[in-house]
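#struct-help
A.M.: can someone run this one for me? Single chain, 218 residues.
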Amino acid sequence: MTTTGIICLVLSYLIGSIPTAVIISKLVYKIDIREYGSGNPGATNTFRILGKRAGLTILLFDIFKGWIVVTLACYVSQAPPHSQDFVNLNISFGVASVLGHVFPIYIGFKGGKGIATLFGVVLAIHPYACLMLNGVFLIVFLLTHYVSLSSICAGISFPFILIFIYGNNIVPSMVIFSCFVALLVLVTHQKNIERLLRRQESKIFILKKNGNGPTQSS
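D.P.: on it. Structure tokens below:
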């Protein structure tokens, strides 16, 4: 990787590290989202505590973080789009941004689960697969109202979608990346899985009206 590529890799991590939920909760709502609900500085906890408007805003920002870093490859790589080298660069920048979101340097390396940022990365690299993953997420969510379970099912389905639907047109590194995504989703949702097994996981009802202020919950 060139010097420019390394700089962009570091930049991708720093962009991914931007703690959107913490910044918005402090600047707009005068609270630290990490002190409420699950304590996770991500969109799902924000939905629960601050409502749909705040949650959606943070969700879109976190998706954008993943999407924008992947586009950096267009300014760094001389390889043609969709080639092995170009996709490898896409993946490298995308993974750096996700790791930044999960382990953000700005707030002590304790970040969110990285799902929204992962969504942005996959959207930029393979929008058709991303659309299918979104379908899996929505179906599971509408049936269960568990964001965590929906994310887990979507993440696990990623390698299967690539292999069985796009297998002939996918570079090997993309399959490896999809397996990384599935594993990362399982690791970052370990506590959610435990709560799901105990039937203690919180549900989110999109059409249900939220309160006007933050609430302490577990």
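A.M.: thanks! Residues 3-197 form one domain.
D.P.: also worth noting: The chain has a mean pLDDT of 91.
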